[in-house]
Amino acid sequence: MSKGGTNVSDEEPPLTIIAVLNLAWSLILNLSVNKKDIDIGKEVLKNWNELSRRIEKLNNTKDSTYLNNIFCLLFGFVESIAFERYFYYQYYQTQEKKRIQTIKYWNDLADMASFSKDGTILRIAGFLGVGGGANVLRDLISDEAITATTSYDIGIFLLFGFIGLVGIVIIVKTLRTRQIRNTVSSTLGEEQKYWESIARKNYKKNLKELYQDIELIQRQYYPNYNEKSSNDLDKIIDRILPQPVLFQV
């Protein structure tokens, strides 16, 4: 039983309020879509069950009943968080989908415009379009009939066709880089804003409410125990939760 940071009179609960708050946040890992997080969450739940069994073997009715009440609070907390977390996850999925779709669209367009197999038609169109346009422009300026039979005309056609071909590749790839960078930056910015202004604030609010509920139960079973933590509750919860700024955008 840890006594760090607490004033113990004649009795001490099996878990302090701060320990329960950390436990509550760790149990949320069971709701994750990440396998490593789920494994950690399962390990936390396993340790909780082991603690409960040890208390039961000691035939300490008060400690055992206290833990049972705490477990009910934790179950309600995780259930409530699961509902909120679903909507948070859907929001993040939407932002990720925007990034994937944008990257795929511009990569496909760049492939069509590049010297790859998929870009053959677009290359030919660019080549013929710019090359032919060069001849038309020359004839308009010189008031001569449009023709591509002379060596000069053919040279102009090939030169501007090649320039057009390379130009299309450069323009599309430049636009791709800019659009992908802008989309990634904007969607990550939206995720950061959502986490900092909505999700994290709600998580913090839920943990504060859980603290108050645990405190009532603790006073009921251990009235002589004084855990001085309410004055630093904001700092304690901030240490439990991930930091406000998850990444720089």
Report on the architecture of this protein:
It is a single chain. The protein is an all-alpha fold. It has one domain. The chain is built from 6 helices and no strands. The protein has helices at 17-27, 35-57, 61-113, 120-142, 151-221, 233-240. Helix 1 packs parallel to helix 3, helix 1 runs antiparallel to helix 5 (151-221) and helix 3 (61-113) runs antiparallel to helix 5 (151-221).
Question: How would you concisely characterize the structure shown here?
Answer:
This protein has 249 residues and is mainly α. 76% of the residues lie in helices and 0% in strands. It contains 6 helices and no strands.
Structure characteristics:
disordered N terminus; 0% strand; mainly alpha; 249 residues
The strand count comes to 0
Structural class: mainly alpha
Coarse shape: elongated
Estimate the helix proportion, in percent. Answer: over 70%
**What portion of residues belong to β-strands?**
under 5%
Give a short account of the largest sheet: none
Terminal residue distance: 43 Å
What is the chain-wise order of helices and strands?
HHHHHH
Tally of domains: 1
- Uncertain segments: 1-10, 125-138, 145-149
Radius of gyration, CA atoms, in whole angstroms = 33 Å
Number of helices: 6
**What does the average pLDDT come to?**
78
